[in-house]
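re: ur question from earlier - yeah i can do the single chain one, its not a big deal. heres the input i used so u can compare w yours
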Amino acid sequence: MDAISKAPLRAATLAARRALSDAQRREASVRIVERLLRLPELREASTVLVYAALREEVDLTTLLGPLHERGARTLFPRVRGDRLDLVAAVDLGTLQLGHRGVREPAGRAVDPAVVDIAVVPGVAFDPRGGRLGAGGGHYDRLLAELAGTTIRIGAAFDCQLVPHIPRQAHDQPVDLVVTERSVHRVARP
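and the output i got, formated as tokens:
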């Protein structure tokens, strides 16, 4: 299935996410972070990739404090052409507006191989780890660069969970999908 065929699924899921009120998104984000913090994989991680949410995405802000208390280092993505660099940052206040209005870190890029856990956004996910992004391929390229041992987690609202996402050869799956209502673990091939 090509990118054009994914357009209706992307549009429908974005509309469902947009239909959530700010209060619903805040409450669901808190519940998603609570689920993330209970994951055994996250408890043992020393380097965690997170992201600065756009208004309609799952907000991971409340995840940062507990991660730092556990001694974990947090990395945020920064767009460099068609790639994502990873840069260490402790809080959202140190980030600057970057590509498409996304807050990005300044500083030296870190080798993606050091990431233990990658918590990534997406437009839609399916219970088998399928991920549909915004269409630029930035996260697909980044996920392909991570070490084989890196746990990839999709953070999404329940309305973003769909029965099936068609995959192309370049599409990178996640190992877990965490919503405010559920955690879906995917068996790696």
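The domain at 3-185 is CATH 3.40.50.10420 (Rossmann fold). not sure if urs matches, ping me
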